[in-house]
């Protein structure tokens, strides 16, 4: 057994939190030999619900859980954190785009970026889930002045998993046989699921561009809204699952596979420095994230990347007072 690590989760009494905590506690995220101390943040009106969640966690008697802290103080939640899940924020309703949330949710990430900076480990791994997650991540990173850009990521793994699911259905094969599809850009309708390196059943996929650039792209890009319309609430279990996948691969490596992470751009593929943009990455077993820099970007993909750069530049402009 390793020494316990400290894992902070914001919005822990919310819908995603309720699915996420049990996956972390069971060892799915950090491994079966990695104990965790859960540091759970809620706003004061959520504290009673959080107490109920903590009671249920205790009643689950997970061997890997070596402590649970419930608090409404970010300084306590992020104290010495090794990993942080920034989930706490408002979801959209069916008549909104994710970017419409930035005015309501953006300010949350100013204080939390500051508190992570002042309290978490300097090596902390932060995943931003709360929407609009790319720009909320940008805000948190901008307010964590002493931490390296590489500490901050946003989640596009749900989009990658959605793409893999659609490809598996199309090919009539279990999803495990779909590899190396990844997402460019923003967790928004402009995102681009790229299949240029994708294999299905170990071979180049052979699917036609008309379907890939039409129905497939539209289904993946608008899946979040489709779920809100069907369920009356935004995706929660699949979002928690994707957050576990993202952090699992960041913590333990992607085993040579290409996965999607929104990173603070260092200029890769001409994406302006500082935008939080989803790239294809490979993660080493010791957690070093490397952008795959030799993707052959054709005209369609180039155009999509440009659309995402324009959208994210606009979002950055809209929150300039928070940076
Ligand atoms: P929810 O409303 O069920 O839960 C959110 C929780 O956050 C609530 O308990 C609330 O009290 C808490 N909260 C609000 N402000 C907070 C703050 N400042 N500090 C700590 N906690 C705070 O929502 P949910 O379904 O869990 O979704 C959470 C967020 O995740 C939403 O913004 C949603 O749009 C986003 N989301 C992102 C993805 C993705 O792929 N990136 C997928 C699904 C949902
Ligand atoms: C999703 O993709 O399911 C989430 O980002 C929720 C949403 O608002 O679409």
Shape type: globular
Q: What proportion strand?
A: 15-25%
Radius of gyration computed on alpha carbons: 19 Å
Cα end-to-end separation: 41 Å
Structural class: alpha/beta
The small-molecule ligands in this entry are: nicotinamide-adenine-dinucleotide, (2S)-2-hydroxybutanedioic acid
The percent of residues in helical segments reads 25-40%
Largest sheet entry: 9 strands, mixed
* Mean residue pLDDT: 97
Instruction: Write the CATH fold name of the largest domain.
Output: L-2-Hydroxyisocaproate Dehydrogenase, Chain A, domain 2
How many separate domains make up the residues? 2
N-to-C SSE string, H for helix and E for strand: EHEHEHEHHEHEHEEEEEHHHEEEH
The CATH architecture of the largest domain: Alpha-Beta Complex
Look at the structure and name the CATH superfamily of the largest domain: Lactate dehydrogenase/glycoside hydrolase, family 4, C-terminal
Keywords, separated by commas or semicolons:
11 helices, L-2-Hydroxyisocaproate Dehydrogenase, Chain A, domain 2, binds nicotinamide-adenine-dinucleotide, Rossmann fold, alpha/beta, 323 residues, binds (2S)-2-hydroxybutanedioic acid, globular
Note the topology.
Layout: E1 5-10, H1 15-25, E2 36-41, H2 47-59, E3 65-71, H3 74-77, E4 83-86, H4 102-105, H5 108-119, E5 125-128, H6 133-142, E6 152-154, H7 157-171, E7 178-179, E8 182-184, E9 192-194, E10 199-200, E11 203-204, H8 209-221, H9 223-231, H10 237-252, E12 259-264, E13 276-283, E14 289-291, H11 299-318
Parallel strand pairs: 1-2, 1-4, 2-3, 4-5, 5-6
Antiparallel strand pairs: 6-12, 7-10, 8-9, 10-11, 12-13, 13-14
Helix pairs in contact: 1-10, 5-6, 7-8
The chain binds nicotinamide-adenine-dinucleotide and (2S)-2-hydroxybutanedioic acid.
